[in-house]
Amino acid sequence: MANAPRPDHTVDFHVRLVDGGPVSPVLVRGTETGDRVRMGAPVGTLTLDESSGRDVLLVAGSTGLAPLKAILEQISLRPDPPRVHLFFGARTRDGLYDLEDLTKLAGEFPWLTVVPAVSDESGGHGFTARLQSGGRAGGGDVEHGNLSDIVAGHGPWDGHDAYVCGPSAMVGHTVEQLARLGVPRDRIRLETFADAQR
Asked: Where would you find the membrane-spanning parts of this chain (predicted)?
């Protein structure tokens, strides 16, 4: 689920197609707008610390963006939102599936900076993302390299609340980097794809 609770009860999903999977092919190829879908309760536990007034660091790998986008939407409803840095990484540019909407949000919210990153530039269709957000004056291209290293290079993050979601290895490396940079472990919230599958 990729949104905060809404008055109209609509929900957004980010679904990565896994060929041969039991659910994603049906959702991606077999549903249309208006179809009814029955679902159970959400499985993940990644939620925004509403009691904190600190700036926020969001680090998403692939469809790990979904819960972080819900947190971003929740932050946007605050009368005085904190500064938010969202790092969105994928293997290739094609994996940055929601970059158009993130770019739009970065243009709407002066407190939001979005940094897209890819680890393998050999794939993808070669578009260039231009982000109009605070802290990236004039926009910027997609960054290249390991997502946790890119996040570390943009620090310091020791004054932020950090939320990390994505593949287990990426989450582990990012948490290690943040701890090394002085972010207290109790201010790092995380969820891996393995956690969400339980």
From this structure: none
| CATH 1.10.1740.10, domain 54-196, yes or no | no
C-alpha 56: how far from chain center: 12
CA atoms within 13 A on the CB side of 131: 27
Rounded to 5 degrees, φ, ψ at 10 are -80, 155
Degrees to nearest 5, angle at CA 14 with 184 and 53:
30
Residue 10 CA to chain centroid, in angstroms?
20
**Cβ neighbours, 10 Å, residue 86:** 24
Alpha-carbon torsion 6, 10, 16, 21, what sign?
A: positive
109, two tokens = 């919210």
Listed residue (90, 68, 84, 66) closest to 147, CA to CA = 90
Q: Are 94 and 126 in contact (CB under 8 A)?
A: no
pLDDT along the chain (198 residues), means of 10: 67 69 75 81 82 97 92 94 97 90 94 95 48 40 92 96 96 97 96 63
Q: Count the alpha carbons within 13 Å of 152 in the hemisphere toward its beta carbon.
A: 16
Residue 20, classed as helix, strand or coil, is coil
Q: Where are the domains of the chain?
A: 54-196
